[in-house]
Design brief:
This protein is an alpha/beta fold and 330 residues long. It has twelve helices and twelve strands. The radius of gyration is 19 Å and the shape is globular. 42% of the residues are buried.
């Protein structure tokens, strides 16, 4: 449980800074994007310079949140250029793990700049000099919201929209088990501020490209069910992306599609990355602690949602995770 002392430490480290870099995990999602936009808007109040940085490209469906698309590491800016910038604070949202910060990890270890972490995951490498981490929060945006309340900062309509997107996406549009009364109370206030849920839902979930739908079809072609239908396994290879014209951002939330099958208790999606490594996303209805599995294999996350990147073939990765799932399913 975070205290006023924790929030004051965060406020103090912000007050001491003037040139701030903000980033989040690779493959930015609704929570990370919503937090970044919110903090960028907040810093207008503080009169500070803030530079957003993404570690991979911004998904098309989150672009409406930003006035200008942020720079992407290795596409618009390099590590060397970052080192030459006079940042005096780094803010990391929605992760506290080196494994979620490829390439940026090298920059973090090379510079002597204070770090503020705002997160809600159990997995932690302790990256922050100051950390606002609430593992009971359904989204990092809820921690950001509580900080705004502590600092008595105005929640504008733009901020409310960004926070709503963050919370709605990290709860599966209020379907997941992490959807609690806290989520609904905060979202009710955001709606009263001027958020339009129907419009946001259309932008997020009824605005996909034909390429994404083709990629989903490929994923379904690879669907396998194990252990009497309790475990669903799917994979996507680089050849599937090339054939469909889709990109890695198009895989966001695809893992949830097979959870519509009534017997499925655990789902996994293995995606071959351009460098040949395999990114595995895991979801659970509760009988299996997928966060424990991911952490054992070098990744992290929550009991119900986690991920890990594995340096092996897709067949080896599938078998490795299957063995761990079987141990818990019994």
């Amino acid at each position: 449980m975070l205290t006023n002392t924790d929030y004051q430490k965060a406020l103090d480290i912000i007050n001491k800074s003037n040139n701030i870099l903000i980033t989040s995990h690779v493959k930015p999602d609704g929570d990370s994007c919503g937090c970044i936009v919110t903090i960028m808007e907040v810093f207008k109040h503080f009169g500070k310079k803030i530079t957003p940085l993404l570690l991979s490209s911004l998904p098309e469906w989150y672009k409406f949140l930003f006035d200008t698309s942020p720079a992407v590491l290795d596409e618009n800016i390099t590590i060397e250029q970052l080192k030459q910038s006079a940042f005096d604070l780094i803010i990391i949202v929605d992760t506290n793990s080196y494994t979620q910060l490829p390439d940026f990890e090298d920059y973090l270890k090379a510079v002597d700049i204070p770090v503020l972490v705002i997160d809600h995951h159990l997995t932690s490498d302790g990256l922050g000099d100051v950390e606002l981490v609430d593992s009971c929060a359904a989204a990092a945006a809820l921690v950001v919201y509580d900080f705004l309340k502590f600092a008595k900062l105005q929640i504008t309509q733009k901020i409310a929209q960004a926070l709503f997107v963050a919370i709605a996406t990290d709860t599966g549009w209020f379907q997941f088990n992490n959807t609690d009364s806290r989520v609904h109370r905060v979202c009710a206030e955001l709606i009263e501020t001027g958020v339009h849920p129907a419009e946001i839902y259309h932008r997020l979930y009824q605005n996909f490209s034909p390429q994404r739908i083709k990629l989903m079809t490929k994923m379904f072609d690879n669907l396998e069910l194990h252990f009497h239908g309790r475990y669903a396994v799917q994979h996507l290879l680089q050849a599937d992306f090339q054939e469909t014209g889709a990109n890695l951002n198009d895989t966001e939330n695809l893992i949830d599609e097979c959870r519509r099958i009534r017997t499925v208790e655990v789902a996994s999606l293995f995606v071959e990355m351009p460098d040949g490594k395999i990114k595995c996303s895991l979801r659970s209805r509760g009988s299996v602690n997928v966060g424990q599995i991911a952490q054992k294999l070098g990744g992290g996350g929550h009991k119900l949602a986690s991920g890990v990147t594995m340096n092996m073939s897709v067949e080896q990765a599938r078998q490795t995770v299957k063995t761990e799932v079987q141990k818990q399913l019994g």
